Amino acid sequence: MNTGNHRGWDGNTLKWIALLSMLIDHIGVIYLSYGSHALLSVYSLSRYIGRLSFPLFCFLLVEGFYHTGNLRKYVQRMLGFAFLAEIPYDLAIYGKIVKLDGQNVLFTFVIGLLVMWMLTKVELWSIPMYGIVLFGCAAAYLLRVDYSWYGILLIVVFYVFHDQKTKRNLAAAVLLFWQPASLVALLCIQWYNGERGRGNRTVFYWFYPVHLLILYVLQYILMPARMGF
After folding, report:
1. pLDDT mean over 109-137
2. 185: containing domain
3. 1 lies in a domain?
4. What's the rounded Cα separation, in Å, for the pair 67 and 84?
5. Which of 178, 157, 192, 150 is CA-nearest to residue 18?
6. Is residue 148, in this structure, part of any structural domain at all?
């Protein structure tokens, strides 16, 4: 919903905050996860900063769901980039071309979009709603997507409490309590002004696979010993 309030942060600003925190997180995972004590301290800091990204992306996914003019294209675009990003994700995170033990977060978002679509067909807080949410969580768990069932629950929280900020924040805080750094994302969301903001909407989709591939290639060039070369 466009509130007409230009104060605060628009969706594009939140997106860039999420992208930057994700990049810092992945740099930590790929380059800083082992080494000296000082390096491990920087690694821990990068992971804390990275906790901002997922709640922000979930929130923006729900905003996109509410405002999209073509849900089918939205899902198709997300699914296409999920497949496109899978090999870069496996290479960067696991060092393998194919790793079936974990799928990238875009698959989580695809499941989240489908769950929200199904929820539009039933009454909230009904037995069918709980069944849909359970189905989505089970799918995320069985497919081993990033953030698993927990990620789907967070998306559902942002969806069902979309117009109830206090309940949304409380419910999200309960889910995020085990990652305190993620709670900072809720403060960022509080600054959201309802505006989409300027910017190319496909930047996020391309940024995800491209940055993973670049990080992998740089690791291959700069740290071949770590990769067994």
Report:
1. 99
2. 11-227
3. no
4. 25
5. 192
6. yes
